[in-house]
Amino acid sequence: MSKSRKRRTSTESAQLIAAYVRENGSMPTQRTPPSGEQKRLAQALMGLRKLNRQGKLPDAAARILDDANPAWTARANYTDKSWQARADEFVAWVIQHGMPRRQATDLTERSLAEWLAEHRVHALNGRRPDRIKELNARLPGWRETPRKKNRSYSDSAQLIAAYFRENGSMPTLIPPHSGEQARLARTLSMLRTLNRQGKLPDEPRQILEEAHPGWVEGARISRERLWRARAEDLITWVTQHGRNPHWSAADSTERALASWVNRQRAHANHGRHPDRIKELNIRLPGWRRSPSSTPKPRAKPERNRPSERTKAGPAAARASGHMGGRPPVMTRNKFQTAHQLRTI
After folding, report:
1. How many other C-beta atoms are found inside a 10 Å radius of the C-beta of residue 318?
2. How far, in whole angstroms, is CA 213 from its chain's centroid?
3. Whole-prediction pTM value?
4. Within 10 A of 170 (CB to CB), how many other CB atoms are there?
5. How many CA within 13 A on the CB side of residue 37?
6. Going residue by residue through the chain (344 aa), what tens digit of pLDDT does each one get?
7. CA atoms within 13 Å, Cβ hemisphere of 272
8. 3-state secondary structure 247-298
9. Distance (Å, rounded) from C-alpha 64 to C-alpha 273?
């Protein structure tokens, strides 16, 4: 049976706590380490504080703790210390780099941006007034979101023109979906909308016309160019093979062209894209005819092969002298004996 630990009196616990304060410069806490004498002293300190609030603490113990640390009755607020350290880090970052951004690649900057957004919400809802007051005093303007300087229409047009001269095409969102290219693509879409509404000034319109006369059409030109390239592929394929492509062909290129032709047939049936349908009628008469008479190269040869293989097996056996089937029960001798018995 284990020996129980001797229970200390309030005065003895106060003396030990006072000795700990003189040696370490702070009151014992339960934060670190999780066990041992320090934790026991921290638990004893909590008990002494409770007795002091209830007016039951002996005067001798109270005098010992007051001599060691006059503020021993106040519990340490580690949350405020942690916040103060975070605020110091945030202020130092802003002074050196500016306001942190959530989209940054640096983990520290993203973490500070989240911390900043949280305190902006506190300020809007009237929470943590002491902390908000300190941030206002140390860093005026921390609650304002920095905004990018808006470009004029002419500046945007010049950037888009420079992009076209460098890359040979107008900026698009595919790819990428972020960065300067995406910003230019969204700006170009806005300028096209303003031009259709008649609100675009003459200077940016002239800049874009000089860079690329077809800048107004946008993706429509790319789609038209893609359709014409596909039509050329179809005409070349039909000229080479002398028939329309079939959707069940073994060749993937033929199947893709057949699928494209089916879509064009649907457009023609519903009266869509009349200019494209008219061009196909002129350049490739009979393109709307269904290739139902086209032989299916994958299905017919395989259809007769199982029957041919089945017939080839018995033929090969007969050629080698094997007749197959169940052997006869009546031999020649048995047959002759039966015949003689019948005639007697």
Report:
1. 10
2. 37
3. 0.32
4. 23
5. 6
6. 445 567 888 888 889 988 988 887 778 877 655 567 888 888 888 888 888 888 888 989 888 988 888 878 776 555 677 788 888 999 998 888 888 888 778 888 888 888 888 888 988 888 888 888 888 988 888 887 765 556 788 888 899 888 888 887 788 776 555 577 888 888 888 888 888 888 889 999 899 888 887 787 765 556 677 788 888 999 999 899 888 898 888 888 888 888 889 999 999 999 888 888 898 899 988 888 776 544 445 455 566 677 777 888 888 888 887 777 777 788 888 888 888 887 76
7. 7
8. CCCCCHHHHHHHHHHHHHHHHHHCCCCHHHHHHHHHHCCCCCCCCCCCCCCC
9. 97
Chain position carrying tokens 């080698």: 320
**Cα gap 38→31, rounded to integer Å:** 10
The answer to whether the CB of 258 falls within 8 A of the CB of 265 is: no
The amino acid present at 107, given as its one-letter code, is: L
What is the C-alpha separation between 123 and 129, in angstroms, rounded? 7
Query: CB neighbours of 200 closer than 8 A, spacing ≥ 6?
Result: 153, 191, 194
Task: Please give the Cα distance from 244 to 203 (Å, whole number).
Answer: 51
CA distance 74 to 26: 12
Structural tokens at position 278: 């008219």
Nearest to 119 by CA among 111, 127, 108, 110: 127
